Structures
1.
Amino acid sequence: MFWQALIDDFMSRMQLHAIPVRIQLWNGHAVDLAPEPPVVIRVKSLKGLRHVARASLDSLGQAYVEGHIDLEGKLLDLIDVATQLACHSGQAERNDNAESSSHSRELDRSAIQYHYDVSNAFYAQWLDPQMVYSCAYFHTRDDTLEAAQRQKIDHILTKIRLQPGQTLLDIGCGWGALAIRAASHYGAKVLGVTLSENQYEFARERIQREGLADRCEVRLLDYRDVSGKFDRITSVGMFEHVGLANLETYFRCIDEHLEDGGVVMNHGITSTDPWSRSSPWGGGDFIDRYVFPHGELPHISLVLQTMSAAGLEAADVENLRHHYALTLQHWAARFEAAGDSIRTLAGEERYRIWRIYLAGCAHAFTHEWVALHQVLGIKRGGARPGYPLPLTRDYMYVH
């Protein structure tokens, strides 16, 4: 029987690795790769068995999303088992070459709307009350997610030395949390831009409700279509959508919009692969297929190179990889706790996609597949004399 040949071949390749999983077939046949495994993969069809037998994170994820397999066990254990199966499948760890999409305005708009315009109610199930969808900043591992997200925003606004009366452009402003705090607590005049209609409507309503319309505005606008100059620019969790080939254009756009002596903070996910290749074992393929179409992650060396080529000097670089692992662990736990509500809101398929996406990303940051870098930059040259930042980093940690 064909299924028997598949399972025999699978066992011959996997049985030496003691992976803590049981493979339970639709016909009652089961194999354990380790004694008393805490994880069970229930294979519901021959198609599902094909996905498992030639495992990658993409193939296993696809089989789960499409209902060909079911998963039992703790979520982070499931991700660890899937990674071990993919690692020992005999496939290459990463794709040989990084590829970059064209990233036209239309392509970027459709990708952003696919990801963010699920529904605000969906994101509200597992984000903090301020709807901050980016890496938090933990002073201790016991910090609540709410506190850590507020600390992240303050960390950024302190780093750029935002002063009352200064103008701030927030590229990819999300649901408006940073823009609103910059206006309400730091006295800045803020413009936020997003391509997500849901985020735009949410942020605009919140700005009106908090009486900040004279100091804070959000526009449904591509960053390439912004006009004017600003004292400060922030970009948080946005440049992942820019594309490797477009990084220098992106940073040149920032440079053009910075006043002389201006300061920019770019906060974004980076690849730990020196050649900016996608996440290993097919994880990047799954994300591109189901979650972030056309997303591309540069290595920090490429970020610094393209920033410099665009006229920006990197003044400070901080890796927050461990902070994002903690953030994603919070998100994944909240997602699990709200599973029934999320299924009702978004449907079974999207629930499955995001369930393994969040836990998989927590695994990726924990195991150094990806990182998160805050890069503080200043506009080189210009007519304004002096250096816009203090001599030491001490100012960043005074609260």
2.
Amino acid sequence: MGQIALEGMEFFAFHGYYDEEQKIGNKYGVDLYIRTDLHAAGASDKLHETVNYEVLYRVVAEEMAAPARLLEHLGHRVLDRVLIEFPHVRSVKVSVSKFNPPLGGICHRARVTLTRRRNDSDTHQE
């Protein structure tokens, strides 16, 4: 087993509970961690034996492009898509951050972190 991570992905997107947030947009950050068997890729040096980072990034970008009211909902969509697109992934963890959330004061980011294991009906929140 091993871990593949895409850290510090940034997107400008139109998420938010308030209608105005969905109109003006905001900057978001995503960190993604997947656990999978990396033995075959390590032995063969072949891309088809592992999870292609480009495809993984595209999956996250597509979910970030579709508006959501809650970061929790957005995180769940990313988890679902990764597990659907990559059948050999054993678990996935995603953190979604909203930069400068509209809280009426100084807050650099609000973040939600979700984890799901394959065939796990419960999502664990941290």
3.
Amino acid sequence: MADFHQNGNIATLHNLRTQTGEDLTRELVSFSTTRKISLILPSLYSELEGDALPKILDELAQVPYLHRIVIGLDQADEAQYRHAREFFSVLPQNHVVIWNNSPRMKEIEARLEKLGLAPSEPGKGKNVWGCIGFLLACADSTVVAIHDCDIVTYEKDMLSRLVYPVCNPNFPYQVAKGYYARVGDGKINGRVSRMLVSPLLIALKRVIGDRDYIDFLRAFRYPLSGEFAMRTAILPDLRIPSDWGLEIGVLSEAWRNLAPKSVCQVEVADHYDHKHQILSPEDKSKGLSRMSIDICKSIFRKLAADGTVFNEEVFRTLKATYYRSALDLLEAYYNDAQMNGLIVDRHTEEMTAELFAENIMEAGQIFLDNPSETPFIPTWSRVHAADSSLMTDMLKAVAADLKDYA
């Protein structure tokens, strides 16, 4: 995507193919002498058994500017935690594996539950939130990056491009969001971003009118990318969603807390692919079906908090407007794919749009039935105010696990 278009809402930092990865790395090594850079890897144990993560570690092992790597390990027993420690030991950087299912970490969670501050459900959001708390307790990082552990096209330059905007002391950015083309196996991928978020935002603008928040989200070329870099100063007051709305939720927090000039998107790869979720049309508690509902709820809640009034008539109109917008975009995606020798299955894409249209109504009804529900995990500032020793005790728990289960 070698262009230089700016949308006027947030800065877009392109890859114009005029700077090498080695050049960026040299600059980041210099920046890192005064701005410590850490990386969070939220991982399921099952990802250690896949093809993507070993290659990611091979690439990360060549990164010289990282101060610390924090791996949040979910869904692992004791034997699997021990294996994960060995698996990640190929990393030469200072790194730690947080065993989220350990008895000590469960005790930390029980303290949070007693205070009414525990995450409401397990998942990536909870994992990322816990890793952020660990980094804040370490109190020695200036920049933190987050990316997934299932990226099959991963290269170390992706991380360099992601962190550069928030590491460069001459730049004003507090948050950088990665973007790329989701292409793999001869297809254009990224169905939820293409066939839900983009047409939904178009439809919302038509139905409820101009909103700064909608324009902000529409400025992002890939709003659902899991690649973020942030300055740690904003982390204590960052509200992390515990459901599938994590990426939209973090963008919403950036819009709520920061000036637009403090946020940018950066092109981190020519093409990108990772593990694909099933659509799951028969079960709305799984796969892309659940993801679409959670994303819609996140957007609806944010708009309601800013004064938008929703009712059943609005959601019915929104569903119809969304579906028309989705079909219009599908035509553009199909033609784009044809010109680039790629495939877009129009029948499957239309079926996907039909499911997403139903789920817009489902999400709308959930919102109307319980408009005060919030999926956000309490901020670490609030946790610290309620229990000032918990973050320190979490550090001790992780350290004790590392010692006892060596």
4.
Amino acid sequence: MAPLIESTRSFGIIGGLGPLASADVFFKLMKAMAAHGNIEQADVVFEQHPFHGSGSTSAATTERKLYVFDMIRDFERRGVGAVVLPCFLSHTFLDELKSNTTLPIVDLMDALRSHVRRAHPTASRIGVLTSDYTRGSGLFERYFPAPAFDVIYPRMPQGRDAVTEAVYGAGGIKQGALTGKPLQLLAEAAQDLVAQGADLILPGLTEVALVAHAIGTLPVPIVDANQVYAQCVADGRREMSAKPFKIGVVGGVGPAATVDFMQKIVRNTPAERDQDHIKVHVEQNPQIPDRTENLVGKGPDPTIALYATCKKLEEGGADLIAIPCNTAHAYVERIQSSLSIPIVNMLTVTVESIRARFPDLKQVGLLATSGTIGSGVYRRALEDKGLEQLLPTPAMQERVMNAIYGREGVKAGYTEGQCQDDIRAGLDDLVRQGADVVILGCTELPLLLPFPQLEHGGGKIVALVDPTDTLARRCVAYAGMATE
């Protein structure tokens, strides 16, 4: 079941795929809104352009898919709140659309299923008048699954399917013929469904719904799917196709740490196939001014650059933002209130994880840049959980900075040699002060110390906490909760 989402009064209707039928949905939507008394508050965009697809006009061709996608992107740019897609054929590739757009699409098939359950609760044998392509796609079987339902179709005559011929054939409904042979073909197909024991007949083409009232008297109901869809949109609460959860990542701070963080998201995601992984939008911006230089008073303020990057992620449909940079979290409080999606605070979730793992712990060592230390962000997070921060001595802190920023430091691409000597010296200093747990408080440090724990002199085991791994695990957990 797709989630229920509060209605927006801003809709974009995609026309052009079936001009008469989409206009019928638009007309019925306006009537439904007028009946609700909210037509003056409705902001409805009806967009129709000529669609000239190559090959079969009754198939989900590439041209059709790109036409619909471009229309949705245009609605996004214009600030439309939700998409109305009055085309059964386009709903056969609805998953492809909703995986690549931030706009909710009102699900025509969900609307039809809800109507059947509410208005025809005893109907189980569902007759469908649709095209040969939609029939072959199994669209109706997905929404009306066995054994609760038995979906049936007209028995096909020789040659082209009667319903497809009535709509797409020469002189068919798509060409404006609303009487004569097209209606005769549809009436014969409907009578065949009745003969097969259908309890109810559903149009599987919006053009069929357009002329459903003129098919003739039948012993079973034939649903006006266009009216059902329009009413669903107008009702104020309706089922939407849910877009996949997306993690937004502020990348480039620094670049190697971004790649490392991405690997940790993949590694921590329970997946059996590619499609089980989480959508991730990385905005790689290595031109964000250096956070440490700014915090120690030697560089430009990165606030606007960080905020601009976060806004791009927000506008790109991210559900949350991850910043795999410890020092950047000194700026999170400045920008969070201006964003509509949360930044997952890496420092806070790291300290929460430490407290949960080591409930009796009193002190925690911190290896970090001088900017992160000077900002006090870790100290405050630790104190909130009753923990004391241990820091390297000033001389050892210089070696930690050299391991990160030095000519042969990790930011310059080195992971062996002098940078290893320097970071081990800083770690040794913290252990001598009594640290049993040490936070690797710069996102490049796990590249130098890629271990969950380290045996120190005398057999002492020191736990090394990687905040980027903790952040990745928390983001994956949020994604999992959102899809339950």
